[in-house]
Amino acid sequence: MATATFRIWRGDSKQAGFKDYTTEVSEGMVVLDVVHKIQAEQANDLAVRWNCKAGKCGSCSAEINGNPKLMCMTRLNSLPLDQPVTVEPMHTFPHIKDLVTDVSWNFRVKEKIQRFTPRKPDAPDGTWRVQQADVDRPQEFRKCIECFLCQDVCHILRDHHMHDKFIGPRFLVYSAAMEMNPIDAADRLKDLHDNGGIGYCNITKCCTKVCPEEIKITDNAIIPLKERVVDEYYDPLRRLFKIFK
Amino acid sequence: MADYPIHEYDVLVVGAGGAGLRAAIESSANGAKTGVVTKSLLGKAHTVMAEGGMAASMGNVDDRDNWKVHFADTMRGGQYLNNCHMAEIHAKEAPARVRELEAWGAVFDRTKDGRILQRNFGGHRYPRLAHVGDRTGLEMIRTLQDHGIHQGITFHMETTVLTLLLDGGRCVGAFGYDRERGRFMVFHAKAVVLATGGIGRAFQVTSNSWEYTADGHSLAYLAGAALLDMEFVQFHPTGMVWPPSVKGILVTEGVRGEGGVLRNKDGKRFMFDDIPPLYKSQTADNPDEGWRYTQGDKSARRPPELLTRDHVARCINREVKAGRGSPHGGVFLDIAWIKEKLPNSVEHIKKKLPSMYHQFKQLADIDITQVPMEVGPTTHYMMGGVKVDPQSQMSTVPGLFAAGECGAGLHGANRLGGNSLSDLLVFGKLAGEHAAKFAKANPAARIPMDQVEEAGRKALEPFERGASGENPFAIQHELQKTMQDLVGIVRKEDEMQQALIKIAELRARAARAGITGNREYNNGWHTAMDLNNLLTVSEIVTRAALERKESRGAQFRDDYPQKDEDWGKYNLRVTRDSHGAPNVEKTPTIPIPAELKVIIEEQSK
Ligand SMILES: Cc1cc2nc3c(=O)[nH]c(=O)nc-3n(C[C@H](O)[C@H](O)[C@H](O)COP(=O)(O)OP(=O)(O)OC[C@H]3O[C@@H](n4cnc5c(N)ncnc54)[C@H](O)[C@@H]3O)c2cc1C
Ligand code: SF4
Ligand code: SF4
Ligand code: FES
Q: Which residues of B touch A27 (CB under 8 A)?
């Protein structure tokens, strides 16, 4: 068995800092295993969020050696163990304690977005007829596990703190899933423009890079939404054309 | 007197998985002021992990399917210990509940003619599971969450219920604490719905998360409610076995539904060797027929890999014990072989089983489109739970309801895959509706402040003992090992007696658990408080398993390896006796009315 040193962020909003823990590690372990081991053996009160330990619930987001990742899906053999592994909470959200942050802002943002609104059913039994090819895209977006890692890296939130003006990549994906769902009938474009702050996104693609579900956030969700918004609200010629059509 | 905040509701729902969310939506729709408490954030409950799908006889893929076939399959799977009325309600209402999810925004996989696609699963006669790849639970919980947040429900995230409050035998609310700040609070309610899920953390190798500490089972039992079928713990046949740190993580049955086969180290498909008589007529007798079944050939019978979970798990156990297992103590599950049959197999597997592909790639460096997986049994699901009225879902305690995995009755001795997600929707809805009705009919009772004080005092004890107390994590680990080794997939009298002794010891140690740090987001404190639930329920499981002297469904007794006809007439019911100890008693199974009997007979041809 090898040993490794983990440099874990401890403390709360009042006082916090890194603390080193050295522990034995074995083949196949992920970062969350090590955090749990330290919690069970050396620091019972260590705060960490997790549920599924299988990359399915999006609870265990953290910054590992500075990279936003799921702790349960980051294997030790992907990290250099000859130096301490740093584990920090996400930076973009208010810190609660140790590795846990207050992500409640995300839940509040979602409530404000126009909910799914189905069109009239296609069949008398109240069901719809939709081809698989037409739901492939919304299904890609609905793979989202709400880990909020994309929100964590987006510079508009992380560096510019524009939480009250920009809903962030997660909720652009959420909106796109409904906008591109052939059963949904609502129109969220004006709202995305006026309140969602979609215009702030300058397509850096940092969000796409960290998404553990490999959702092509920028190319498949944000850019098409931006195009629709532009079509609808900025292009006077096209608008005129629409009116006369 | 302590000055805890008091939250007033008509209906309090404990749990925000599929059952809790569905119950809350219905309760709110019925005009009840509804609150939901959940130990995690919204959308993270166990339901999120469900992979394969939800069973509903919509007949979109095979129009021979209907509620009667689903009903009969469920009863056969449960070895006829099920509550037949629940099985009937479930089979009849599941299709409507699934369609409703679509109207709320769920995006299911589609058939060629644009309807909801359904897939094969163990024990289901026809392709019946509505699904989204292998992440159906995520689709379900997200749909309910995104719908639920617009229904006027109040959510208390990362809040844990520690005790139920009682007034003259009626449940009148709950006492709990919020994790973030560690503050106590009182929920004063006219009706309470338990939807707390399962007990998997009582075992070492499990597909279940930290939340599965048997809270609802224990809370109900301590409040005086009867529990049922507590000996029946489902071990899923296919969990990951390697690397050690991921041991137990689930490998969906969908792999076998898509054509995956089980082999031992000699390359033999051992499932053909042992097909139970009850299933002989419905099972393929050669590999080719099995393959055709998975590809939708209606004239083919299902491969033996898709027999019920209890049976497949035991066959795997047998192969491993006989020295025919894989290098890390499992057997091989092979989906890569379908490249012999499908030219685009790599893309096909990635499309049908995306999360399995990722899970193995990321956690075990294995590409399942190229090589077989290694799998073995893992603790998965609790058939036993709170005994409820089949229609209203009310427990034997007035005002206390239960739905989802913490309830009992639908699944009998063994649950069919896919029957849980549909269970959550069907009975979650009924529980919400009837809890709301109960709340309308019964005025609020007083808050029993003595119980509140007592609960608050007890919850703080671990801090008083501090670092000199027992380490709560160590106690939990020992309990898990005990249950795994002594009350696991193969059970015997003397081992279970040993387990009872060990549980008593651990209980004494748990009473001395100590914890350091402060009250804010303290996982150690939380674990210390969970211990009581885990220990209470572990003891109950063991006592019920000891009592049932036969092998049936999920219970396998090495010392009574046969099914016993007489035992087939009884369920076991557990209540708390006047000394606070579990009292296990035989109760006759619910008699099956003639019209349902006819269906069972027709369907077993
Ligand atoms: C890996 C995996 C795959 C599965 N796949 C399938 C499948 O394909 N098909 C199928 O039908 N079934 C499947 N199952 C089973 C199914 O997912 C579960 O049985 C089901 O989701 C349980 O739902 P529930 O609503 O009862 O509880 P859960 O979803 O577990 O929710 C329980 C809720 O109760 C809360 N809670 C618990 N205790 C307390 C407390 N003391 N105070 C406050 N809140 C509390 C929790 O925080 C949580 O919100 C699978 C299970 C696993 C583990
Ligand atoms: S692409 Fe847009 S949303 Fe994504 S990180 Fe960059 S600015 Fe933020
Ligand atoms: S889009 Fe990806 S990164 Fe963002 S919350 Fe969802 S899963 Fe996480
Ligand atoms: S614990 Fe669920 S994603 Fe890591």
A: 243-244
Number of domains in chain B: 3
Summarize the confidence of residues B436-456 as an average pLDDT.
96
At which of B341, B358, B379 does a domain end? B379
* Chain A residues 202-231 within an 8 A CB cutoff of chain B: none
Of the candidate CATH numbers 3.40.50.1000, 3.10.20.30, 3.40.190.10, 1.10.357.10, the domain formed by A2-101 belongs to: 3.10.20.30
The encoded tokens of residue B140 equal 């379900």
Type of residue at A61: S
pLDDT tens for A46-63 read 999 999 998 999 999 999
The verdict on B113 and B223 lying in the same domain is yes
What is the atom index within ligand 1 of the atom nearest the CA of B141? 29
ipTM of the complex: 0.95
pLDDT band, very low/low/confident/very high, at B211 (cuts 50, 70, 90): confident
Q: Is B399 left (phi over 0), alpha (psi -120 to 50) or beta?
A: left
- pLDDT-based confidence at residue B310 (cuts at 50, 70, 90): confident
Q: Which of A48, A111, A178 sits opposite B523 (nearest CB)?
A: A48
Query: Tokens 């159906």 appear where?
Result: B136
Task: Give phi and psi for A61, each to the nearest 5.
Answer: -65, 140
Q: Are B96 and B55 in contact (CB under 8 A)?
A: no
Inter-chain contact B139–A142, Cβ cutoff 8 Å? yes
d(CA A116, CA A134): 17
Which one-letter amino acid corresponds to residue B388? V
| Chain A, chain B: beta-carbon pairs less than 8 Å apart | 177
